[in-house]
From TrEMBL, chain A:
InterPro entries: J_dom_sf, Tim16. This is J domain-containing protein. It comes from Oryza barthii. Keywords: Membrane, Mitochondrion, Mitochondrion inner membrane, Protein transport, Translocation, Transport. One of its GO terms (cellular component) is TIM23 mitochondrial import inner membrane translocase complex.
From TrEMBL, chain B:
SMART domains: DnaJ (SM00271). This is Os03g0776900 protein. Residues 117-171 form the J domain. Component of the PAM complex, a complex required for the translocation of transit peptide-containing proteins from the inner membrane into the mitochondrial matrix in an ATP-dependent manner. Keywords: Membrane, Mitochondrion, Mitochondrion inner membrane. It comes from the Eukaryota. GO terms for molecular function: ATPase activator activity. It is found in: Mitochondrion inner membrane. Probable component of the PAM complex at least composed of a mitochondrial HSP70 protein, TIMM44 and TIMM14. The complex interacts with the TIMM23 component of the TIM17:23 complex. GO terms for cellular component: endoplasmic reticulum; PAM complex, Tim23 associated import motor. SUPFAM superfamilies: Chaperone J-domain.
Length: 116, 176
């Protein structure tokens, strides 16, 4: 009698726990969609093979097409240091990536022989 | 010592000498630096009874001195290989130490459409931070990237957009 009761309790408890876990999983998926984690993951996968565009890099550093490399380097140093002090690491990363992108562009121009 | 009963002749002596030299060379190659080289070297002697007029002839082992330069050469080679390995290890260590610093930055540019996660990263706060902390972080980051003080308008617009998104004033419908 007691063993039968305990077995019954175990079966019912397992069912309840299983359903609760399923609901929690679905809720987690909904939260991921709302907060953008899933979206960001998809974007990261799509962007894994792509780098920052030249236009966005110039916008981030606040320079134009006619700017020289010395000016770009100066603005990069300024922004990088200030974001390191009181900014955020994410913005610092974007500034660094922008400098890398423009560095590649200017090196390519120098090799081709056309002045930027 | 080996005593030879029959009387020795020149061809016999030559063959003995050649065999002794070969044996010593082989011993030196396989047992370089080993004291057994002396034991492995046979000594050929001629008994004086067979030929009293000819003097006693002894062949001294000629391969014993070959061990020292061989051991020295091997030691130099081992030292050189060790040095080369140490140099390669040091260079690899330096290269590896510098790499994580470069990889630590987030890759690529900003997202096409800002998400709450990116907004939190831009301001350096949690996604569910309090409004006071969001305002404080926005003020601090904006001071660092203000267009009037050398910042760029693009970054400033991103910072403002992040603040609006985190405080629920942006396009996203959900408050938290």
């Amino acid at each position: 009698m007691a063993g039968k009761l305990i077995a019954n309790l175990i079966v019912m408890g397992s069912g309840i726990i299983g359903r609760a876990m399923l609901q929690a999983y679905r809720k987690a998926l909904d939260n991921a969609n709302k907060t953008g984690v899933a979206h960001e993951t998809i974007n990261n996968i799509r962007r894994a093979s792509k780098t920052m565009t030249e236009q966005e890099a110039r916008q981030i550093l606040g320079v134009s097409e006619q700017s020289t490399w010395e000016e770009i380097a100066q603005r990069y140093d300024n922004l990088f240091e200030r974001n390191a002090k009181s900014g955020s690491f994410y913005l610092q990363s974007k500034v660094h990536r922008a400098k890398e992108c423009l560095e590649n562009v200017y090196q390519k121009n120098k090799q081709d022989g056309t002045p930027p | 010592e080996t005593d030879l009963a029959p009387p020795p002749t020149f061809p016999f002596l030559l063959s003995c000498a050649a065999r002794t030299r070969i044996a010593l060379s082989t011993a030196a190659l396989f047992h370089s630096g080993s004291p057994r080289v002396a034991c492995l070297a046979p000594t050929v002697s001629v008994s004086p009874e067979s030929s009293p007029l000819r003097p006693r002839i002894q062949l001294s082992p000629v391969g014993v001195d070959m061990a020292t330069p061989l051991v020295a050469g091997l030691s130099v080679a081992a030292a050189a290989m060790g040095s080369r390995y140490m140099l390669q290890a040091w260079q690899a260590f330096r290269t590896r130490a510098a790499m994580p610093r470069v990889r630590r930055f987030y890759p690529g540019g900003f997202e096409r459409e800002m998400t709450r996660r990116e907004a939190a990263l831009i301001l350096g706060v949690r996604e569910r931070a309090a409004f006071d902390k969001i305002k404080e972080a926005h003020k601090r980051v904006m001071v660092a990237n203000h267009p009037d003080a050398g910042g760029s308008h693009y970054i400033a617009s991103k910072i403002n957009e992040a603040k609006d998104m985190l405080m629920g004033k942006g396009k996203s419908g959900s408050m938290f």
